[in-house]
Amino acid sequence: MMTLVQVECFVAVAEEGHFGRAAERLSMTQPPLSRHIQALEREIGAQLIDRSQRAIQLTAAGKVFLREARSLLSGAEAAAKVARRTARGIQGSLHLGFTSAVGRTALPRVLRRLTNEVPDVTPTLHEMVTERQIEAVLGGVIDLGMVRHTSHTAGLSFRSLPADRLVIAAPRQWGLASGQPVALSAVHGRDFVMYSPDASRYFHDMLSAIFVARGVVPRFTQHVVQIHTMLTLVDAGLGAALVPASTAVWAGPRTSIVQSPELEDFPIESSLVWRTDSANPVLARVLDAIAPAA
Question: Which InterPro entries does the UniProt entry name for this protein (predicted)?
Fold first, then answer.
């Protein structure tokens, strides 16, 4: 089988036009250099160097092979460079998970930091709810997740992201003035779009605790997973909702976004999560790069 050493020997002889200078360039003696080229010619099945002349002359096959040989050596060096950069975490790929709400706040900052600090790392994005991200990180499907607060799991590492806060999204016909703070009791006994207890457990449990703590009992009309869907239903007049303030820009024209001072005691906590024993060499460098954004 043809080897890179054989190819390198041939290119050196062709470029130097002399076996002695080629051997010196490659830091070897002439006999092994000649054997490498002879072995290469046997492997190819064609004579590359015309040995009947006093000066080094390439055959027609040798001239064609020289062009391809240079490309081969260049490609091999490029592949080696990529491998070295990947091993050092300078270059590679990163599978990054995020929830829709975190995607509105932390994700843009993280992506900007990646672009500026580790431009040779290519992120592949995966939108998933928190529970699926935890499973994906543990299973090696994604390298890094951006999740809502969750109980710490063995084998995973966490780093806090900036907190968000809740606001009330209500149908405009309710008469709640945007920009004017109201009591949470504004949703007591009224139609309310709630989070799914299964697929959106973090928000479901959080809101349930808030309502109990404040003595508020809304009338749940729908249970949904995505905040986009929730705001769509609010805009359709199916009830109010509590959503992260960062997602208020998704509200429709028939929705009022109202702050409630009572909700300030319940920050929305998010975290980065990754496998403590991750084998992806770019992960450590990515975590360092996005630290200011996180």
Answer: LysR_HTH_N, LysR_subst-bd, WH-like_DNA-bd_sf, WH_DNA-bd_sf
